[in-house]
Amino acid sequence: METPVPIAVMESAVSGGARVPPRLAPTPEGDRPACALARKLDGFAPLTEQDRTALVDLIGHVRPVERHAVLVEQDSVPDHALIVFAGFASRYKRRVSGRRQIVAYLVPGDLCDRGALHGHPLHHTLETLTPCHIAKVPRAAYLDLLGRHPRIALALQRARFVEEATAREWVVNLGMRSGVERMAHLLCELMERLGSIGQVTDGQYDLPLTQLDLADTLGLSSVHVNRVLQVLRRDGLISLQGRCLHILAPRRLRQLAEFEVAYLKAGYL
Amino acid sequence: METPVPIAVMESAVSGGARVPPRLAPTPEGDRPACALARKLDGFAPLTEQDRTALVDLIGHVRPVERHAVLVEQDSVPDHALIVFAGFASRYKRRVSGRRQIVAYLVPGDLCDRGALHGHPLHHTLETLTPCHIAKVPRAAYLDLLGRHPRIALALQRARFVEEATAREWVVNLGMRSGVERMAHLLCELMERLGSIGQVTDGQYDLPLTQLDLADTLGLSSVHVNRVLQVLRRDGLISLQGRCLHILAPRRLRQLAEFEVAYLKAGYL
DNA sequence: CGGTGTCTTGAATCTAGTCAAATGATGTGG
DNA sequence: CCACATCATTTGACTAGATTCAAGACACCG
């Protein structure tokens, strides 16, 4: 967590990563914005060239972070905004028994600005699930950015709505879906979220989570997660080897999960 | 849903309600603020006399609403802010099978202003669980209120943080607690929320929900909710007759649920 | 000497089987 | 709408074996 990294190097370095050769096409088309954040926010509110430049300037704050690094401890009040540029992070809560429940994923383009902006403590822990590249933007610089770029502020506001809707969707997922359905729904959600930042190619994306991570997300045991994945494979819905997930039958998968994509899109005013 | 109702009449009329004589002391002490909303917001940010007056003036918009009335249909964009003054309402989502999952409760003092303020559609249905008194405040009037009363706006912002934290807490509840623990946690949460608006006396409060409502909240079958309640009764943690819930052993109940009250309180800046 | 490739080894991680516990479905009566 | 009984299903706990990955040791080659 020492020196800044050029962003081009960054994205491939972490996401293509260690365990499996990067089979996914790294560059979808030519017109990809500079980073996941810009790409995501642009989807929520059209950004100007200056806006994009300002976002790219955040690269100066980016540092590599190893796997399983705690970014924000529960109940602390961070004075930085955290922006994920590459890798997966999570918000989770632990029980005294040691079990954890992941309540949200942070994928590239996602951020945590609550503490920085409002001085309220977080009631859960923020931790990386994989090696990441993360920008720690000091409160002042972050506020300055929002002040100078109203479109970015608007896009971030919409992103917050989507976050809230996602949390509610997770409640639905845990509350009334079976194991298989929960997994299907999560995979659909990730396909959308990663797709919106250009990290899905031809129904395939990199899923750098262990089955234990998935279990702690879906409220299942890791053993049952394994069973559930077998079922999805057997039914020809997905193929998953190592970290490379391929959605073979998107339509059927969405139908199984009763996945409605609307909650991930910001409505237009 | 026709004529405005004096607020004093309102609160006792609905909460004391139909099925059981109102055994709970209707007036805790003498210094109770005029309405649940003022009382709740005052807990988030100290209000002035003018602020309180402005809130009381919302009475003009209040109408009685029967049980199981749909307030906002899924995917619609309401042009009013909805404020619950008495009774319980819910946000829920339905599956094609007909099953519903409640994702949030709206108790007196809670509100739904998303659609009115930002023009985004709701991704779930808003429906009363009991007879209610609800204010429908037109967008313009609501914005005007916020503009004139910055403390109210601040308190509402904090209320929104609490709502978000509550949703995450429900994810934890559904994801990694057993039936008994889920119920215990919900009862603890309601005790806090109702307590903050003065509707808990001596560990007792009015719980106007059916076991089916609770089941659809906790991701359990109604039969299992019944089992779970029997266990809590047998262990001397609660007594529940009709709608009158008495928390007999608050400490043990909180311990069982691993309930941490912090998420319901707004941190101070 | 330094770089490169192979092999070994240990730690995670995944897969799979068995049994037990929690929870759901159905029906009946109060 | 609640209480309770009965039976079916899902899911968890425990265990063990297989697989993958990472890091180091070592030999080979330039």
UniProtKB/TrEMBL annotation, chains A, B:
Domain of life, source organism: Bacteria
UniProt cross-references to InterPro entries, sorted A to Z: cNMP-bd_dom (IPR000595), cNMP-bd_dom_sf (IPR018490), Env_Response_Regulators (IPR050397), HTH_CRP (IPR012318), RmlC-like_jellyroll (IPR014710), WH-like_DNA-bd_sf (IPR036388), WH_DNA-bd_sf (IPR036390)
Alphabetized UniProt keyword annotations: DNA-binding, Transcription, Transcription regulation
SMART domains listed in its UniProt record: cNMP (SM00100), HTH_CRP (SM00419)
Keyword DNA-binding: yes
The keyword Acetylation is assigned to this record: no
Name of the protein this chain belongs to: HTH crp-type domain-containing protein
One matching Pfam family: HTH_Crp_2
Gene3D superfamilies associated with the record: Jelly Rolls (2.60.120.10), Winged helix-like DNA-binding domain superfamily/Winged helix DNA-binding domain (1.10.10.10)
Residue ranges constituting the HTH crp-type domain according to the UniProt record: 177-251
